[in-house]
Amino acid sequence: MMLLLEIALTHVRARLRQTLVSTLGVALGVGFSVAMASLMEGSQRDFVTALIDAIAHVEVTDDRRNPAPQPAATAYAAVAFHGLRPVEDTRGIRNPTEAITALRNWVDGDLAPRLTGQAVLRYAGQDLGLSLRGVDPAAEVRVSKIAEDMRQGSFHDLAATANGLILGDTAATRLGAGVGDTVTLTSASGLAKRFRIVGLFHTGVTGSDEGLAYAPLKAVQILMERQNVINGIAIHLRDINEADAVAARAERLLGYKAVSWQQANEGLMEAFAVRNVIMYTVVGAILLVAGFGIFNIISTIVHEKARDIAILKSLGFAERDMQAVFVFEGVLIGSLGAAGGCLLGFALSSYMASITFSFASNAVEVTHLPIYMSPLHYVIASALALASSAIAGYLPARRAAALNPVDIIRGAS
């Protein structure tokens, strides 16, 4: 085996320039593949982190997974009804204290009750429709990052102000209102109540900044005439990977619909999976191109060393030994290229992670490229490089092993 390796090294050194070019091709392929994988997975993780920080990991609502059967259908087994007026459904999660206690007994995370409804905000003769969310401030800050998004005031000010209101800064700008101003909120039932703006937030999500407001839970229950009623429970888990299991168990326990963050963003998760397939396909294509360079140099070596091959076979070397020599050459070039590519990939990833920039439209903070360095990226890129190198070396090796030494020595080839 050592003799075969020494022969392979001799062949590689004999064409040093071509060997360096092929090695550089593999190194560039591995390096840029690692950097691209780090950037793409980093952006995916950064997006998912921002997503799950902005929404509840599990949200229990007052909806039902399947609609309740109609009493008339149960009593008469009728196919259809016409002209019936169902009793007004007040909806909401019944016995919220009992429901939250039942969840808190086994959920590894934080819970926050919510009552969300539509309201019209009026200030200085202007009206703005928005979604009003009644919350317990101390519990809400544990299940969302709204406290970090505050631009003026503190989210905890809601706890100290019975009729306090926290509004998106975009909505406040449209109305010309600011912290300390008093506005009027009117519910869908027509009941109006005055609130005082105690803070402004900015999430970067236009829908929230323009159409969402927070107020104390009790005040919203009074405005919407739903005393001691909530229509949502937000759950923030210690382990986000348990969201599906927690949602399923909560739904069985309470009977209300519970949705995990994965279910709420199922289309997005599928898009990420497709993007990963595309990424690794591109990586494989890059390394396949590098493999053609290895194939070319080893094919040239086979052609130039035909007489040496004939002599070695005449001395008793088997065909598999000849194949092994040229496969070793391909793997050697691939190994050197993979090692250099890993160093290049680490350098590129580190450099990209150090790049900082800010957006002119909202230059409130300096951000950076989301780079995620994982050993798996280096392993996959190196494995693909070695595989393509071995294949590129094996194809010419078969030709070398099939050469007839007698024909070569006689000058037939």
Automatic annotation (TrEMBL):
Residues 282-405 form the ABC3 transporter permease C-terminal domain. Residues 19-252 form the MacB-like periplasmic core domain. InterPro entries: ABC3_permease_C, Lipoprotein-release_system, MacB_PCD. Pfam families: FtsX (PF02687), MacB_PCD (PF12704). It is found in: Cell membrane. One of its GO terms (biological process) is lipoprotein localization to outer membrane. GO terms for cellular component: plasma membrane protein complex. Its main location: membrane. It is a multi-pass membrane protein. It comes from the Bacteria. The chain crosses the membrane at residues 20-40, 277-303, 324-348, 376-395. Keywords: Cell membrane, Membrane, Transmembrane, Transmembrane helix. Belongs to the ABC-4 integral membrane protein family. LolC/E subfamily. This is FtsX-like permease family protein. It comes from Pannonibacter tanglangensis. The lineage of its organism: Bacteria, Pseudomonadati, Pseudomonadota, Alphaproteobacteria, Hyphomicrobiales.
